[in-house]
Amino acid sequence: MMLSTFATADWGMTLAFLVLLAVLVLLLKLAGAARTPPPAGARAFFWICPLPAVESVARMTPVGKGAFFPMMGRVSLAVVGFLAAHWLLWRAGRLLGWNGVELSYLATPLVWLGTGSFALLAQLIYLPAGRLLPAVHDNVLASRGVAEFWGRRWDVWMSDWFRQVIFRPMRRRPVLAVIVVFLVSGVVHEFVIKLGLWLVTGRNQFGSMMAYFGLQAVGLFAERAWLAGHPRLKRVWAWIVVVGPAPLFVNEGFLRTLQFWP
């Protein structure tokens, strides 16, 4: 069954995603470096590593030669775990006959597992340079609210970039800064997912990523307005806001990228 999965996989979409992601990271680096030049001692490394923000470079830690094999073990476990989860969820979806919205929810954990595995692989690849890239996620399941999820837990690499390029220059207008951050998040995901879908399949489905991140902004402002003194409700609210509209995010383009489209 695994062979049949790969035989029918939409690899063109995955390739388009990786190419567009590389272009996006370069554009983000240029924007960040225009405001804060990378440190002289890590300038070359910054331009060849996947970190989009100069500030992320400052959070790298030096490592010795003995770190390679333990990291290889972590990467192996992560990749095997991702592939096993992919196959199990893929089989479950086919057995249940799910597609569309149901399939989006079923594949949502793969976004977390896949991005984490990709970041660990990047850490391994760049380890010979004697530097350990910071983790891309920080204990996501411990999130205590929408703001904490997006600001501190999920995709810390991009969070660093947002702080450097948007939040600090707009610190006197924090509400507008939040709106701009989620607007840019929507544009970024439209670029790497929906543009890829259009290039590969000709299907025009632009807009759902913008809608998803628009809802995240609404959820964050609602949290600040009504749930500040209710920590338990904030936790529940965070997952309602983040996972509830998942089909807007884990859409056809993302499902094809993950090799999860029926």
Care to give the gist of this entry?
With 262 residues, the protein is mainly α. It is 71% helix and 2% strand.
Bin the helical content: over 70%
Return the structural class. mainly alpha
**Can you tell me the overall shape?**
globular
Strand order of the largest sheet: 1-2
Tell me the strand percentage band. Answer: under 5%
Query: How do the helices and strands follow one another from N- to C-terminus?
Result: HHHHEHHEHHHHHHH
The counted number of beta strands is: 2
Question: Nearest-angstrom radius of gyration?
Answer: 19 Å
Secondary-structure blueprint:
Layout: H1 2-7, H2 11-35, H3 43-48, H4 54-58, E1 61-62, H5 68-96, H6 101-126, E2 131-132, H7 146-153, H8 156-167, H9 174-201, H10 208-226, H11 231-243, H12 246-249, H13 252-257
Antiparallel strand pairs: 1-2
Helix pairs in contact: 2-9, 5-6, 9-10, 10-11
Description:
It is a single chain. The protein has helices spanning 2-7, 11-35, 43-48, 54-58, 68-96, 101-126, 146-153, 156-167, 174-201, 208-226, 231-243, 246-249, 252-257; strands at residues 61-62, 131-132. The relative contact order is 0.14. The model is unreliable at 1-8 (pLDDT under 50). Strands 1-2 form a two-stranded antiparallel sheet. Helix 2 packs antiparallel against helix 9 and helix 9 (174-201) runs antiparallel to helix 10 (208-226). It has one domain. The chain has 262 residues and is mainly alpha-helical.
